[in-house]
Inverse folding.
């Protein structure tokens, strides 16, 4: 007899009941309906497709954006005795062919792949031959150009509908506005769309904005208040290294994590953090998607995010176990202007796009009316330098042309010259003493790339040539020499960008075709940043209400625990406050965080009261660092 959803949940996941709208989503999928599931971070999205896939005959196709996320899910399923395959990078044609054969003939239940894989003809051919029970599109906001993390490759997801017209599609995301939701359903060709949405309210998270002149001090104070698991989000790789070093020197165990680490380093650091070998991970915002760690107590944004969507998704990685947690945004007086400059000045408008597009065609010697279907390699930094183009704005222009199918950036984009100096400092400086002719280049690299002794780092050889007065050829020759001497690991590429033109060159006419879309997109990004700044500046409205309103909810009550609600509370008689705290401790010992949440107090008020009660010996601190009544 076939097992039902709850039996499957209990057998494989060990849970007795579903959470939120999980069962509603699963029931709809089992009835063959297309579903857009909007579930908050920690809402158990993977269960929504894994459980029905175990019931239905055939294989479930899961499209997911990150290799780490895919591998994490597949490893978890294998541990449960469920057959699952992941199509990750570095697979040869022969191995890919064999894995796809296994999906057709090997009774596998799950095939995980990236959206880029859907662009491969072999993968599409084999997908058509499979008996597909369900298609799950994870992080579905990536499909929408109006979303905070649009990825053009995600548009390939629509091809599954053509290859497997009978299979229901389940699109899942933790952050989607009404506009993004509609865009997802339109792109996936939902005929009779069903939207199932749980409230984004996270009643256990204390949202807080902390203005400060000294972020480092505040960061240390937050993370030292209790020895608990935390994530610190920053915008640059360099900052992850700086802050993790600072925290370790301050007695807080921390590691940095970003896209420039080797695959083995990422896995090791993630595993160590998941197993609580160290307590804090300092990361760029790609970290955390799909990572199942329920006991994160603190999420700190050290720098201002570019949208409330990004902020809420990252902050929502705190307290997934439902226990009290805190999400803090640290704000320096200059942060808002820095963010506006960083995010808005790098957005290419229509005029810049037209100039850039003509320049690119001229540089590649593409004649008017020609170029369609042709591929070119490009040395990105040399191109930007030759025409004095701002690199970030130029990169964003290329992404816009890619997103609008004017040209296609290959997966090789970003594979620039990378270097990791693997030898010790002592050995390196001994080498410099005996090879003084190389000192200028090596010392310049060390000064420019602070983390190069710790991890693989992108090297701008064009910039190094300008700084040292040496030729790029001589710089690359030296780096190769270090690599051959086993003092460094070098991955060098003369052309760091590969692009294919999809339409003939028609200069302004080409850009005019996307002018309206580009203008709307730019205005939306400006609006997103304005909303984020307004959230940080807000001193009156409940922070949870602001977030929920952004996602289309209209809560009646304030959360009662955010910094604004705390500040807005009427003054309470000290004696009443003391009685309330002692009443809570009569039920048993509690730590400071739990008491702050239960009593809905500001930290300053709470610790002032605690000091008084400790001095009076009314309460004491036990061996678990909890407060309890002094019997």
């Amino acid at each position: 007899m076939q097992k039902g959803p709850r039996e499957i949940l209990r057998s494989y996941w060990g849970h007795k009941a579903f959470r939120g709208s999980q069962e509603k989503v699963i029931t709809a999928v089992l009835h063959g309906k297309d579903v857009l599931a909007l579930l908050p971070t920690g809402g158990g999205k993977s269960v929504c497709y894994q459980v029905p896939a175990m019931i239905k005959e055939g294989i479930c196709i899961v499209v997911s954006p990150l290799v780490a996320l895919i591998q994490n899910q597949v490893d978890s399923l294998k541990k449960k005795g469920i057959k699952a395959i992941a199509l990750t990078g570095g697979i040869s044609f022969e191995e890919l062919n064999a894995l796809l054969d296994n999906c057709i003939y090997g009774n596998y239940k799950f095939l995980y792949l990236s959206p880029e894989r859907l662009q491969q003809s072999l993968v599409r051919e084999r997908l058509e031959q499979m008996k597909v029970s369900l298609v799950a599109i994870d992080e579905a906001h990536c499909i929408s150009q109006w979303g905070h993390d649009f990825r053009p490759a995600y548009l390939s997801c629509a091809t599954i509908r053509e290859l497997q017209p009978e299979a229901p599609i389940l699109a899942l995301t933790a952050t989607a506005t009404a506009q993004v939701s509609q865009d997802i359903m339109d792109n996936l060709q939902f005929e009779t769309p069903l939207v199932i949405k749980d409230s984004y309210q996270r009643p256990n998270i204390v949202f807080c904005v902390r203005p400060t002149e000294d972020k480092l001090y505040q960061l240390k104070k937050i993370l030292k208040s209790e020895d608990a698991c935390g994530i610190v989000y920053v915008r640059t790789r360099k900052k992850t290294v700086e802050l993790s070093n600072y925290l370790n020197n301050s007695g807080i165990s921390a590691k940095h994590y970003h896209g420039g680490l080797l695959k083995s380093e990422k896995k090791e650091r993630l595993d160590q953090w998941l197993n609580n070998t160290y307590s804090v991970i300092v990361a760029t915002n790609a970290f955390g998607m799909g990572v199942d760690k329920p006991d994160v107590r603190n999420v700190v944004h050290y720098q201002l995010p570019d949208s409330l969507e990004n902020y809420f998704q990252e902050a929502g990685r705190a307290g997934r176990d439902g226990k009290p947690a805190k999400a803090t945004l640290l704000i320096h007086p200059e942060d808002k202007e820095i963010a506006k400059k960083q995010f808005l000045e790098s957005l290419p408008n229509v005029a810049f796009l037209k100039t850039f597009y003509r320049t690119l065609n001229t540089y590649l010697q593409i004649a008017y009316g020609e170029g369609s279907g042709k591929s070119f390699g490009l040395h990105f930094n040399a191109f930007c330098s030759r025409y004095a183009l701002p690199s970030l704005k130029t990169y964003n222009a290329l992404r816009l042309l890619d997103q609008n199918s004017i040209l296609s950036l290959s997966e090789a984009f970003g594979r620039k010259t990378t270097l990791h100096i693997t030898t010790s400092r002592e050995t390196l400086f001994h080498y410099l003493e005996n090879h003084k002719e190389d000192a200028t280049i090596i010392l310049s690299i060390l000064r420019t790339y602070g983390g190069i002794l710790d991890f693989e780092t992108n090297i701008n050889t064009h910039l190094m040539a300008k700084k040292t007065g040496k030729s790029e050829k001589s710089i690359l020759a030296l780096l190769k020499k270090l690599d051959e001497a086993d003092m460094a690991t070098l991955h060098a590429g003369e052309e760091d960008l590969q692009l294919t033109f999809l339409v003939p060159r028609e200069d302004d006419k080409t850009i005019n075709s996307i002018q309206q879309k580009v203008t709307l997109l730019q205005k939306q990004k400006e609006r997103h940043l304005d909303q984020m700044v307004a959230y940080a500046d807000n001193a009156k409205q409940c922070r949870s209400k602001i977030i929920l309103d952004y996602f289309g909810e209209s809560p009646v009550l304030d959360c009662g625990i955010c910094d604004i609600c705390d500040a807005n509370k009427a003054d309470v008689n000290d004696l009443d406050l003391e009685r309330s705290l002692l009443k809570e401790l009569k039920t048993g010992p509690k730590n400071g965080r739990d008491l702050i949440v239960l009593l809905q107090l500001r930290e300053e008020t709470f610790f002032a009261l605690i000091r008084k009660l400790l001095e009076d010996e009314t309460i004491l601190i036990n061996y678990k660092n909890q407060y309890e009544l002094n019997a």
